[in-house]
Amino acid sequence: xxxxxxxxxxxxxxxxxAVILLxxxxxxxxxxxxxxxxxxxxxxxxxxxxxxxxxxxxAASWIGGGVPRWIVVILLCALVWHWCxxxxxxxxxxxxxxxxxxxxxxxxxxxxxxPDLIDHLDHQTSFSYPSGHATSAAVxxxxxxxxxxxxxxxxxxxxxxxxxxxxxxxxxxLGVHWASDIWGGTMLGAAFALLGAWWAGARDRPQxxxxxxx
Length: 214
Hints:
By secondary structure, the chain is mainly α. It has helices at 3-27, 32-42, 51-63, 66-84, 86-110, 132-147, 150-173, 179-200, 209-212.
């Protein structure tokens, strides 16, 4: 029996457990000092930033949530379908949907209030932990990188890192999330990316030459 699928499941379970434990730590106030320090360093700098930079942060955040997020997911599902077939597309779409549901349920369960250091530069009505934007960025782009053909994999991993970091910084700088929200969301998204990779077959099965070279 191939051990890679087992490792993916164990890692996903570990990450989900870490998300829940971090949520309890957040509720107990154990992350408050670090959260305040990071937000003071980033969110409070927004007032000193140029309107162009603020607009860029808002655009990065806009792409990662709401309708734009699902448009990106649909387009990327079509891309991975071309790369490795319908099972990969279902893995990406399904992992995105399920991670979004998990994030929403955890938000309700932990009920953490949004930061109030600055006026929010992005309208939000839900609770704060874990960040849905961070969850989405992690699951979509990490799984995309995992499913990418070898010739595109380095670029895909670079894109994943850039989108995760940019999304996280934008949410903190816009005053709508604490750093621990971002960390929890990123771990949750990574867990569902691993589950998606597991369901897609972990990309360890031999593929037709046409797909490997596409």
